């Protein structure tokens, strides 16, 4: 039992310093994480989610009736976007808009110009990229699809 009484005694000030130091570390980590979460937040998808939800079913049903599917592939420094119908026929919306960015932040978002073959020359860094495809069918139906493309190292 002599090992417990050797050295400096544990006083109230020591206990206070341990509590302040421990909670100080926890608070510093939480503040750092909160700061980085706010700094990298890309923003809201829609200004008012309730209003957007009111027409969601109608928009989804109209898009499903089109039967279009989009796919994206990155190879040889080009992003290729393909939109096909149920029969596998290539579709080319006149107002095709594609936004390319990282899945978790909007800092690197770009809207490249696509040629008539729905291809755009891009220099994408390795990793995951979000490809948002937006366009209208000839009857005015909105087509919207979000894709993930993996770029190898």
Automatic annotation (TrEMBL):
The keyword Transmembrane helix applies. InterPro entries: FixH (IPR008620), FixH_proteobacterial (IPR018037). The chain crosses the membrane at residues 12-35. Keywords: Membrane, Transmembrane, Transmembrane helix. The keyword Transmembrane helix applies. This is RdxH.
């Amino acid at each position: 039992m002599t090992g417990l009484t050797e050295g400096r005694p544990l006083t109230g000030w020591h206990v206070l310093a341990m509590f302040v130091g421990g909670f100080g570390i926890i608070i510093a980590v939480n503040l750092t994480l909160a700061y980085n979460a706010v700094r990298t937040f890309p923003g809201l998808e829609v200004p008012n989610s309730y209003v957007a939800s009111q027409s969601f079913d109608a928009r989804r049903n109209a898009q499903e009736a089109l039967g279009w599917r989009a796919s994206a592939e990155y190879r040889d420094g080009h992003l290729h976007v393909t939109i096909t119908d149920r029969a596998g026929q290539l579709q080319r919306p006149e107002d095709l808009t594609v936004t390319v960015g990282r899945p978790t932040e909007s800092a690197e978002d770009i809207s490249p110009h696509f040629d008539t073959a729905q291809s755009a020359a891009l220099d994408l860094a390795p990793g995951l990229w979000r490809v948002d495809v937006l366009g209208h069918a000839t009857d005015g139906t909105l087509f919207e699809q979000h894709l993930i493309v993996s770029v190898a190292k």
